[in-house]
Amino acid sequence: MPGDQPQYVIAPPPAVALPVAGSDALFPVRRVYCIGRNYAAHAVEMGHDPDREDPFFFQKNPDNLTTDGRFPYPPMTRDVHHEAELAVMLKSGGRDIAVAEALEHVFGYALALDMTRRDLQAAQKALGRPWEIGKAFEGSAPVGPIHPARAIGHPDRGRITLRVNGALRQDGDLNQMIWKVPEMIAHLSRYYALAAGDVILSGTPAGVGPVVPGDVMEIAVEGLGAMTVTVV
User: Fold this and answer.
1) Most exposed: 18, 22, 110, 211, by fewest CB within 10 Å?
2) Taking the CA atoms of the chain, what radius of gyration do you get in angstroms?
3) Where are the alpha helices (DSSP H) in the chain?
4) Residue 162 backbone phi and psi in degrees, to 5
5) Where are the domains of the chain?
6) What is the dihedral of CA 181, 174, 69, 67, to 10 degrees?
7) Taking phi first (over 0 means left), then psi (-120 to 50 degrees means alpha), and beta for anything else, what does residue 11 get?
8) Is 176 left (phi over 0), alpha (psi -120 to 50) or beta?
9) Rounded to an integer, what distance in angstroms lies between the CA atom of residue 185 and that of residue 165?
């Protein structure tokens, strides 16, 4: 009957879903959390103390995630930077998750880029305002296929690199994370009710820098392969 189906005043937006390596099934995205300054060398290059302070997070929007291998250069900026990251996808969640149990909630991992309008972010930092205008814009998080943890395990070490037009820009190791994946999940769950479909971007090593239209970025993580994204 007509009354059995919800009626909307406008058409609902399309669901955001990501491909899974080796499967036709898709991973639905609920929320996107990003940890800031999670590699000591990157904290230093951004002018901050690399000591192990409490982690902090900002958010991107689910529809900021893209999978078409293209990064549209955004408006209102002259300084867009690349940040190579490991993305963590959750299959379940909850509150006050123990560090020892955190990896039980992980579905898999993927390559990701946290693209940043650095000039706009810097202006917001100077004013003590949120970063979203520099971080959560359209197309700001290219991601690769998700590799299920059941197939690759839980990578806690391995080289992570980013090249622009073949030149090495970022070169680090996952074991350089200040806050490891289980700790990130546990900390977030103290403040949010985590759930299936949540995505966590785990921070970037040193070497972030600008890109311009026509540049080709290649991110690689040991055990997860590589992803190429063209700035258009």
Assistant:
1) 22
2) 18
3) 40-45, 118-127, 132-135, 149-152, 181-191
4) -140, 130
5) 16-231
6) -10
7) beta
8) alpha
9) 34
Backbone angles phi, psi at 88, to 5 degrees: -115, 125
**pTM value?**
0.94
d(CA 62, CA 70): 17
Question: Residues 144-171: pLDDT tens digits?
Answer: 999 999 999 999 999 999 999 999 999 9
* Mean pLDDT across 123-135: 95
Q: Please name every residue paired with 162 in a beta bridge, in sequence order, or none if there are none.
A: 170, 219
Query: Closest Cα to residue 154, out of 231, 221, 82, 96?
Result: 221
198: exposed, middle or buried (Cβ count in 10 Å: 0-12, 13-18, 19+): buried
d(CA 179, CA 105): 17
Residue 156, token pair as written in the block: 């806690």
Q: Which CATH architecture is the domain 16-231 placed in?
A: Alpha-Beta Complex (3.90)
* Residue 161 · residue 171 · CB < 8 Å: yes
Give tens-digit pLDDT for 21-43.
999 999 999 999 999 989 976 55
